[in-house]
Design goal:
Elements lengths: L8 H13 L2 H8 L3 H15 L4 E4 L2 E4 L1 H32 L1 E6 L1 H6 L1 H11 L4 E6 L2 H9 L5 E5 L7 E15 L14 H5 L4 E3 L4 H9 L10 E3 L2 H9 L5 E4 H10 L3 E3 L6 E10 L6 H12 L8
Parallel strand pairs: 3-4, 3-5, 7-8
Antiparallel strand pairs: 1-2, 5-11, 6-9, 6-10, 6-11
């Protein structure tokens, strides 16, 4: 490809108007600029092309033979540019009518349904393609451009992504109703929690990452069980396998029904932000941006202790 600069399309449009009107002044008015600005643009176009395109006189302006050739090619170029812009508009409409979204387990189960219902009310024609994966995978999909937006539970900002806080959550210690801690009269010591095998989520999940961070260097025993979903962890804890640390969102129903019991722990207060993430230096498509706005507008604070 030549290193020469591409002609300014607006200047080519102006040249065609001069050819049609026979006057720089008339062409300028139709183009919505002053005659002085039109003259400067045409002078710049001639200078960049290295050709004389117009013959100016007191009776008007006419294309030179070289100007007529350039004008013929300009019509082709402008038609191609119009076709390109039309294709881009179609692609944007298709993009804005689809949201590819991924969310970590806790968000997907307890918050995303409400957000998507609100999105459907706001933009009824939008198609949503959801995925439920752990927080690490959400970030990977966002970096690779495989999703438009993702939602994660994370105590820290992920690298290489744009982020926005949308809500907060709190991790709590829970046990089955027959576990000795369920009848503990005072707050459990942090050291006792660190020395107890727990039922935990798999590495890479937001819940596991937050737990590992707060317990770093304190845990002295391996997990009792390692499971890949909140539901599996809750069943194991209710059955008496071991305590667990889970999102307050994930266990709200079980706590109300008495199937799980929250155990207060001295010095353990883990509140974590819930984040929207998307590819850095990428503008969110319209429907994805609306989904993030609705998530943030839901204004869900961290559940109180």
């Amino acid at each position: 490809m030549s290193n020469a600069r591409w002609p300014d399309l607006a200047s080519l449009e102006l040249l065609l108007l001069v050819a049609e009107q026979g006057s720089v002044g008339k062409a300028a008015r139709l183009h919505g600029i002053t005659q002085a600005s039109a003259s400067r643009r045409l002078d710049t176009l001639e200078r960049e092309l290295g050709l004389t395109l117009l013959r100016r006189s007191t009776t008007g302006s006419r294309l030179t033979p070289q100007g007529r050739i350039v004008a013929d090619q300009a019509r082709v170029a402008l038609a191609a540019a119009d076709g390109l812009l039309a294709s881009v508009r179609d692609l944007r409409r298709e993009r804005d009518a689809l949201v590819r979204v991924a969310a970590s387990m806790t968000i997907a189960e307890y918050l995303m349904p409400g957000w998507l219902a609100a999105l459907r009310r706001t933009l009824p024609g939008v198609e949503v393609r959801p995925r439920v994966v752990n927080s690490d995978m959400v970030c990977r999909l966002a970096r690779d451009g495989e999703i438009d937006v993702g939602f994660i539970e994370s105590p820290f900002l992920p690298r290489g992504l744009s982020t926005r806080y949308v809500a907060y959550d709190r991790l709590i210690v829970v046990v089955g109703p027959r576990h000795p801690w369920a009848r503990h009269p005072v707050r459990l010591r942090f050291a006792d929690l660190a020395a107890t095998p727990l039922v935990v989520r798999e590495p890479g999940s937001g819940t596991r990452s937050a737990l590992d961070r707060v317990m770093a260097g304190r845990i002295t025993v391996p997990p009792a069980l390692e499971l890949s979903s909140n539901a599996a962890v809750k069943v194991a804890v209710e059955a008496g396998a071991a305590p667990a640390v889970l999102s307050a969102l994930a266990v709200a129903a079980e706590l109300r029904e008495g199937r799980l019991v929250e155990v207060p722990v001295a010095g353990f207060d883990l509140r974590r932000p819930l984040l929207a993430v998307w590819r850095r230096r990428t503008r969110l498509p319209g429907a994805a941006a609306e989904l993030v706005r609705l998530a943030a507008a839901s204004g869900r604070p961290a559940p109180s202790s």
